[in-house]
Write a structure and sequence with these properties.
Blueprint: H1 2-16, E1 37-41, E2 44-47, H2 48-60, H3 69-88, H4 95-120, H5 125-137, E3 141-151, H6 154-165, H7 170-177, E4 188-192, H8 199-207, E5 218-220, E6 223-235, H9 240-265
Antiparallel strand pairs: 1-2, 3-4, 3-6, 5-6
Length: 317
C-alpha cells in the first residue's frame, strides 16, 4: 500500500497535466483494440494497451528505470478504484469535471488526428532541402572584425584621431587611452554581427572600408569611440543536417495549420459566446494640487559603470 500511494503522489500530478494522458476505457472504446486484460477491478478490466501507454509516458520522462511494470499496474488499479468511486458518487456529472473530461478527450483525439495526417503526408528530403536553401543557406550575413578606442569626451577622441593621422599605432593608443575592457587587447573586439552592437557603432563599422578607421568620433551611450575595421567575412550557414529536424517541425506546423484552415472552411461553425461587455468609462476625480517636487538627489558616487559597447545589444544565441 505504501508503494502504491507513493507512486500515485509521484505520477498523478504529472500525468494529469500531460497533453497525452493515459487512455480511459469507456463505452465507446472497443475492448478488442486494447488487447488482453492484465487485471480486473470489481469486474472492470484494465487492458495491456493502457499499461503500455502509461509505460510510454513514464519512459518519455526518463523515469523508465525507476518503476516496474508491477508498480505501474498498481498505479492503474488505484486510479480505477478512484474512478469507480467518482462515478458512484456522480462526480463525473459535476459541470467542471465533465468539462475537463470532454477537453481531455478532445485533446487526445485531435492530437491523434494530427499525427495521422502527418504520417499520411510525410515531408520528403527534397522538400526539407529546398526549405534549407531558401531560408538558411540564402540568408547570408556579413560579420566584421574591428578594434575600438573608447574615451569619455569628443575632444579626447579627436586627439586620438589626430595621432592616428600622424602615424600612431591603433593598438598602442587603445592600450594607453581606451577605457573599455578590450584595451589590454589593443581594442580588439573579435568577430561580430551588426545586430550584436549598438546601432551608431554598427553603422560606423559598416560604413568603413577594411583597414580604415573613423575620421570623426562616434558617440554611443558608452562614450566616444574611434573604430578601426580590420576584416569582413560571410557568416557560414549551419549544415543541413544540423537544422533539418527544426525545418521539419516548422514545415509540419505550417502544413497542419493549412489543413486545419481547410477543415474550418468546409465546416459549419457558429459561435454563440456572448460578446464581452464594453469597459465602463473611467471618471477621474478632481485632485488637489501636487506638492512641490523635491530637488533630484545627486548621482551616487559609487554608481556602477555602464556595460561595455563590445557586449551584444541583445543576448547572443
Amino acid at each position: 500500500m505504501k508503494k502504491t500511494l507513493l507512486l500515485a503522489a509521484a505520477f498523478l500530478p504529472v500525468l494529469a497535466g500531460c497533453d497525452r494522458p493515459a487512455p480511459q476505457t469507456d463505452a465507446t472504446t472497443a475492448p478488442a483494440a486494447l488487447g488482453e486484460a492484465v487485471a480486473t477491478v470489481n469486474g472492470k478490466p484494465i487492458y495491456k494497451a493502457e499499461l503500455d501507454n502509461l509505460s510510454g509516458e513514464i519512459a518519455q520522462r526518463g523515469m523508465a528505470g525507476e518503476v516496474t511494470q508491477e508498480r505501474l499496474l498498481d498505479e492503474l488499479i488505484s486510479r480505477e478504484l478512484l474512478r469507480q468511486e467518482a462515478e458512484s458518487k456522480k462526480i463525473d456529472s459535476d459541470p467542471e469535471t465533465a468539462a475537463r473530461l470532454s477537453n481531455i478527450r478532445r485533446a487526445i483525439l485531435s492530437q491523434a488526428a494530427a499525427q495521422n495526417y502527418t504520417k499520411a503526408n510525410p515531408l520528403s528530403e527534397e522538400a526539407l532541402k529546398q526549405e534549407y536553401d531558401q531560408r538558411v543557406a540564402a540568408s547570408k550575413e556579413t560579420e566584421y572584425k574591428a578594434r575600438h578606442i573608447l574615451v569619455k569626451t569628443e575632444a579626447e577622441a579627436k586627439d586620438i584621431i589626430a595621432k592616428l593621422d600622424k602615424g600612431g599605432k591603433f593598438e598602442e593608443l587603445a592600450k594607453a587611452k581606451s577605457t573599455d575592457g578590450s584595451a589590454k587587447e589593443g581594442g580588439d573586439l573579435g568577430w561580430f554581427g551588426p545586430q550584436q552592437m549598438v546601432e551608431p557603432f554598427s553603422q560606423a563599422v559598416i560604413a568603413l572600408e577594411n583597414g580604415k578607421y573613423t575620421t570623426t568620433p562616434v558617440q554611443t551611450q558608452f562614450g566616444w569611440h574611434v573604430i578601426l575595421r580590420e576584416e569582413t567575412r560571410g557568416k557560414a550557414a549551419p549544415p543541413f543536417e544540423m537544422v533539418k529536424e527544426q525545418l521539419r517541425h516548422m514545415l509540419q506546423t505550417q502544413t497542419m495549420q493549412k489543413h486545419v484552415d481547410e477543415l474550418r472552411a468546409g465546416a459549419q461553425i457558429a459561435k454563440t459566446l456572448p460578446p464581452a461587455p464594453a469597459p465602463a468609462a473611467e471618471v477621474t476625480p478632481p485632485t488637489a494640487a501636487a506638492p512641490p517636487q523635491a530637488a533630484p538627489a545627486p548621482a551616487a558616487a559609487n554608481a556602477q559603470p555602464e556595460a561595455s559597447p563590445a557586449e551584444p545589444a541583445t543576448p547572443a544565441h
